[in-house]
Amino acid sequence: MKLNLREKIWCFLFRFKFIRKNFFYKLTRYKEKLKSLDRLKLDSNSFVIDIGGNNGVVSYYIFDKFKCKIDIYEPNPYCALILNKIFAKELKITIHETAVSNIEGFGNLYYHQFEKNFKNMSLSESSTLEKIKSNISNKKFKKVKTENIKSILDNHETINFLKIDIEGHEYKILPEIIKNLKKIDIIFCEMHGESHRKEFKEQYDFWKNKIGPIENKKFFTW
Fold this sequence. Notes:
Blueprint: H1 5-14, H2 17-22, H3 28-36, E1 47-51, H4 57-66, E2 69-73, H5 77-86, E3 93-96, E4 99-101, E5 105-112, E6 136-148, H6 149-154, E7 161-164, H7 170-179, E8 187-189, H8 201-211, E9 219-221
Parallel strand pairs: 1-2, 1-7, 2-3, 4-6, 7-8, 8-9
Antiparallel strand pairs: 5-6
């Protein structure tokens, strides 16, 4: 798979810290979320897991600020290609081209309903393992490898920061994450179903209630 011209330019420009800080990090779609990461208490010895790395903006922001070790999980082949390009020289960042789920094996990664060639980065954030998500097409998907969240957590004694953004599939991995809260310092999770993606409303309400006692301590909805 080859990158489109747009993503070639993106990857080239993204290698320069000055451009990342003064342009990409200030884009409206990222600015507020990235600002919330400033309160993290990380350093060069910290370990971060980014589940749903997409185009790498969040992970690179964390790396620029704290220089910590980061494992990124991203099943979308085109996004994984971009991640490998922009992080090629960063030895502390590891890219895993897999989806994180509650099972190990393979699953269907469904794409946005307007996706045409599986190479549209602007629509890639909608990709999901969840067939019920309202803005995807059940006919547009790729078979991807899935890794069990339990196996990932079992491989680490301490995770200083865990970020989750997997378009509704977070509810499949939250049970195991809640079981392992002692080894995770802080979690930022995008939870679908509150004000958008009403198909996840029931799951959102259940988990919002369940994590209520630990919210504002180590679990933050993002």
